[in-house]
Amino acid sequence: MLDDEADDEAEPSHYLGISGTELVASYNWLDEDRPKIIIPGKPPLWTPPETPSPLQQDAGVYYRDRNAACYPEHPMEPAVVSVMKMRHAPCPVDVFACGSTLGNLLRFSWGSRQSFRMLLEMVGGTVHLIRREESPRALIPDVRGYGYSFPEAYTTWEPEVRNSLSHQRIIRYAFGELYLMVRFEADGYIGSGRAPPLSCGDTDVLEHFEQWHVGERPRAQASASWGVLSAADAGAAVPQDCIFELKTRSVKKQGDEDTLGKQMPRLWVSQVPTFILAFHERGLFTDVRVTDAREKVRDWEAANQAALGRFLGLLKRIIGTAQSHRGDELEIVRQEGGSLEIRKRAPGAGGLFSGPVRGRWAAWLGEDGEDGEEEAAA
User: Fold this and answer.
1) At CA 179, angle to CA 74 and CA 129, rounded to 5?
2) Which element (helix H / strand E) includes 141?
3) DSSP code for 299
4) Of 55, 255, 290, 371, which has the fewest beta carbons less than 10 angstroms from its beta carbon?
5) Predicted pLDDT at 1
6) Dihedral of CA 200/206/208/209: which sign?
7) How many angstroms separate the CA atoms of 233 and 250, rounded?
8) What is the per-residue pLDDT for 11?
9) pLDDT at residue 5 above 50?
10) Average pLDDT over residues 261-281
11) DSSP sequence for 325-342
């Protein structure tokens, strides 16, 4: 078991922060009968109406984990597929995770009593942390308010990415001596800022993956099959500095809580620069605030050095445990208020990736993860 006293990093001898943030890959989930993504996809564009009108309250089915709901067999597989399609040259990666798993470990380092579970496994020289709910299609209970109807009314999926359900991004940055690759869901982007589609050379990107075809269906001209997952080229890469996080609140709570302050850990992990906070009165949004949160995130980082030291220490110990159990399928479990336990995964818990993707991903990562730490520390 691991407790929350990471004494070796609790009093960092030097400043701990995130540096060198870069967009590595992105993709959109499409609303289709079978799992399909488009790469690089594009987040919804911020398109507020000129004259606001009252919105209907949220009504529908909302999943806790979009990736698990769309592809329950291997929810992290679309992320690594998009990385390998958009970035042929490998780069050092010590930890591959998502905003949820890193957020849980960060809160644990803060002393939170919240329970969580995640899968832990080494592939190549990289530790992978995979979110795991009670069910892949676990729902968000008791959804109330306008957290979903507001973005539907104030953002737009552009023509090349219509029929999208979600935009997922994979970024990479250095934290301490570690390189982290992090997948997260983006709420949208502002303005016309965009980069050309990330190129994989002069040939069709899908030609590079023709040998990865593991399904029985013939490959369509514009898509490649990954078992039951298919991937197609569509969209354009959007710079990270255009991305925003969005929250809605009733005007009754306008002075009662620091909504932006509560989002600092999430904005820090995902390196999202802009925060939109929209206040409504009975569904009518007349106070929508768009804030550049970068300076506040830097201030939060500086004010929480001891906690970030514990977080870094925890990540290092998880890496050490995974390295000493290379080849084992592990999981990290924390019951409410208890210690953090790393144990062998129960039968039937599922694997990280399908066989063909796992082999290619291990080759992309390389079998030795030490180079990444040395480069990060340089």
Assistant:
1) 25
2) none
3) H
4) 255
5) 52
6) positive
7) 40
8) 64
9) no
10) 97
11) TTT--EEEEE-TTS-EEE
**Strands, E assignment, the chain:** 18-30, 36-41, 45-46, 95-98, 116-123, 126-131, 155-156, 164-175, 178-186, 188-189, 223-226, 229-235, 243-250, 274-281, 284-292, 330-334, 340-344
Place of tokens 């380092």: 109
Q: What is the pLDDT of residue 192?
A: 65
166: Cα within 13 Å, side-chain hemisphere: 20
CA atoms within 13 A on the CB side of 288: 18
Q: Per the structure block, which two tokens stand in for 354?
A: 């399908």
Distance CA 247, CA 142 (A): 17
Of the candidates 101, 164, 103, the one whose C-alpha atom is nearest the C-alpha of residue 352 is: 101
**Does the pLDDT value for residue 85 go beyond 60?**
yes
pLDDT at site 65: 86
Peptide bond into 43 cis (omega under 30): no
32, 315 contact by CB (below 8 A): no
Residue with tokens 């609790």: 10
| Residue whose C-alpha is closest to residue 90's, from 378, 360, 373, 376 | 360
What percentage of the chain carries pLDDT values higher than 90?
Answer: 69
Q: Phi-psi category of 41—alpha, beta or left, where left has phi over 0 and alpha has psi -120 to 50? A: left
d(CA 326, CA 39): 31
Q: What is the mean pLDDT of the chain?
A: 86
Interval 342-352: pLDDT, tens? 999 877 767 78
H helices within 208-350, ranges in order? 259-262, 264-270, 294-303, 305-324
What's the start-to-end Cα distance of the chain, in Å? 32
By DSSP bridging, strand 229-235 and strand 36-41 are: parallel
- The stretch 317-330 carries a mean pLDDT of 94
Contacts of 378 (CB under 8 A, 6+ apart): none
Give the global pTM: 0.86
Output the DSSP codes for 48-94.
Answer: --SS----PPP-S--BS-HHHHH-TT-TTHHHHHHHHHH--S----S
Residues in contact with 155: Cβ distance below 8 Å, sequence separation at least 6, in sequence order: 44, 45, 46, 47, 187, 188
Q: Are the C-beta atoms of 205 and 251 separated by less than 8 Å?
A: no
* pLDDT the model gives residue 251: 93
Task: Classify burial at 203, counting beta carbons within 10 Å of its beta carbon; exposed 0-12, middle 13-18, buried 19 or more.
Answer: exposed
